[in-house]
């Protein structure tokens, strides 16, 4: 008969396997999704569509956040998370309907290449395309803010009691920030260029960890951290996707998307590094380091070149 220790170990490995499969499937889906977006949407309409898409997503996520708050507040662990995962799976299944309805344009048959040829092609892109190198730098510097969000919750637990209900409230505030900034971008869409969006994203992301350090140890004040992180995430969703679409072509977009995902190593390594640094020096050093790394993205926002910046 399996003892409690063995059962717990089995559950941990099961969760790790599920997370790994989800990560790989997400990476493949992102390549196809970006490629389809580039092929079926006219360049002149991409920015507006990305904003509208993010607006709809923000509204949907706020509804989801309300539901998450109710479930976390009223169901005990682990039933609450089991129900959340079940709902997530069902909604993902429904979401595939839209992709089945998309009609892709006909493309020429491309000769198959070996893995060695693909690796050489990756190297050639990095060598010859300075815009793509800058894009990877952007992903690896500003991307650390996403990896830092879980540490905001851990830091909050040192200041006050954080239960399931308060976690749901923070999530709701985060989605409210995302919706608010998306509405603002849609209202000023004609004057909102990708470069301006990148500036906003970098500044907001750099300020978020600092705000976490200086606000009073009160949940109402600390909610500002999640308001800012939601706003920054929403801007990044629009700007990073838009820039990638513009610096790539129909022929190499899938390759660029795959390489950008594989090259964003800081989003994988930074949580490990941050966790190690927190155990040695505390949260202050990690949050300051996160802000500094995000500010490096200003260089990319200033120098990267693609048509919508000058449109």
Question: Which key phrases capture this entry?
Answer:
single chain, 311 residues, mainly alpha, Growth Hormone, Chain: A, 83% helix, globular, disordered N terminus
Describe the structure.
The chain has a single domain, classed as MFS general substrate transporter like domains (Growth Hormone, Chain: A, Up-down Bundle), CATH 1.20.1250. The chain has 14 helices and no strands. The chain is an all-alpha fold and 311 residues long. It is 83% helix and 0% strand. The longest helix is centred in the first third of the chain and has 37 residues, at 4-40. α2 (43-74) packs antiparallel against α7, α2 packs antiparallel against α9 (219-247) and α11 (266-281) runs antiparallel to α12.
């Amino acid at each position: 008969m399996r003892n409690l220790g063995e059962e717990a170990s089995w559950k941990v490995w099961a969760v790790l396997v599920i997370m790994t499969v989800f990560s790989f499937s997400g990476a493949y889906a992102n390549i196809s999704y970006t490629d389809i977006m580039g092929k079926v949407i006219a360049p002149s309409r991409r920015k507006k569509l990305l904003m509208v898409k993010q607006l709809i997503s923000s509204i949907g996520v706020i509804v989801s956040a309300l539901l998450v708050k109710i479930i976390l507040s009223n169901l005990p662990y682990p039933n609450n998370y089991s129900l959340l995962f079940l709902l997530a799976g069902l909604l993902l299944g429904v979401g595939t309907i839209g992709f089945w309805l998309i009609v892709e344009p006909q493309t020429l048959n491309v000769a198959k290449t070996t893995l060695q040829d693909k690796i050489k092609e990756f190297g050639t892109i990095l060598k010859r395309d300075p815009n793509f190198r800058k894009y990877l730098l952007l992903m690896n510097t500003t991307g650390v803010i996403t990896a830092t969000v879980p540490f905001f919750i851990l830091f909050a637990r040192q200041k006050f009691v954080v239960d399931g209900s308060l976690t749901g409230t923070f999530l709701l505030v985060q989605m409210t920030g995302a919706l608010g900034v998306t509405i603002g971008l849609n209202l000023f869409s004609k004057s909102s260029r990708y470069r301006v969006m990148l500036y906003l994203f970098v500044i907001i992301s750099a300020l978020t960890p600092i705000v976490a350090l200086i606000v009073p140890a009160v949940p109402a004040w600390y909610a500002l951290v999640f308001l800012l992180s939601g706003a920054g995430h929403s801007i990044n969703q629009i700007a990073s996707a838009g820039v990638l679409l513009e610096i790539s072509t129909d022929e190499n977009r899938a390759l660029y998307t795959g390489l950008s995902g594989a090259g964003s190593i800081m989003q994988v390594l930074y949580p490990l590094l941050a966790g190690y640094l927190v155990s040695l020096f505390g949260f202050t050093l990690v949050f300051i380091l996160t802000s500094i790394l995000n500010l490096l993205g200003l260089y990319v926002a200033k120098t990267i070149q693609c048509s919508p910046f000058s449109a």
